[in-house]
Amino acid sequence: MPGAKAPYQSFSNCLSVNGNYGDCKNAPINLYTALSYRDRLYVGGYYGAAPYVLDDRTGFLIPTEIAGWCWNDYAQCGGKRTWDLVGLGDTLYTASSRYIMKIPLAEVPSFQPSMMDQFHWSADTSWRDSVLRRNNPIGW
């Protein structure tokens, strides 16, 4: 890690304030798996066991948990980790730390303007492309 900084661009839905994201719905802390399936990118990892889908138009990672992935007001969502993702036919499957879970692709959420308030996302996303981000080095 040159200069003690990771040599890649990190991705985040939320701008942290003093390292604290509060109740802002952000990307998983550590990504363990990524899947490109039917022209969409899905990611999962530590926190939580419901994967996220990238909305190409806005650049936000949308949590699939809002599509009924979880139950008990999101208290039960397959544990705290998504270990693997696979797309088969018209369904997305995950292996989480507690369950194997599935969601029909037709129910995978897409960006809605109401998510900005629901997840406390800032309308100004220019910080994502600030000087703090580094280009991925060639050949790494």
Q: Report the radius of gyration as a whole number of Å.
A: 15 Å
Mean pLDDT: 78
Strand order of the largest sheet: 1-2-3-4
Q: Approximately how much helix is present in the residues?
A: under 10%
Q: Describe the biggest sheet?
A: 4 strands, antiparallel
Shape: globular
Please give the number of β-strands. Answer: 7
Query: What is the straight-line distance between the termini?
Result: 11 Å
Oligomeric form: single chain
Class per helix and strand makeup: mainly beta
- Percent strand: 25-35%
Distinct helical segment count: 1
> Order of SSEs, N→C?
EEEEEEEH
The parts where pLDDT drops under 50 for at least 5 residues are: none
Description:
The chain is an all-beta fold and 140 residues long. It has a domain at 29-110. It contains one helix and seven strands; from the N terminus they run E-E-E-E-E-E-E-H. The chain has one helix at 115-118; strands at residues 30-37, 40-46, 52-54, 61-63, 82-88, 91-96, 100-104. The strands form two sheets. The chain has a four-stranded antiparallel beta sheet with strand order 1-2-3-4, with no helix packed on it. A hairpin with a 5-residue loop joins strand 2 and strand 3 (52-54). The longest helix is centred in the last third of the chain and has 4 residues, at 115-118. The N and C termini lie close together (11 Å). The relative contact order is 0.20. The mean pLDDT is 78.
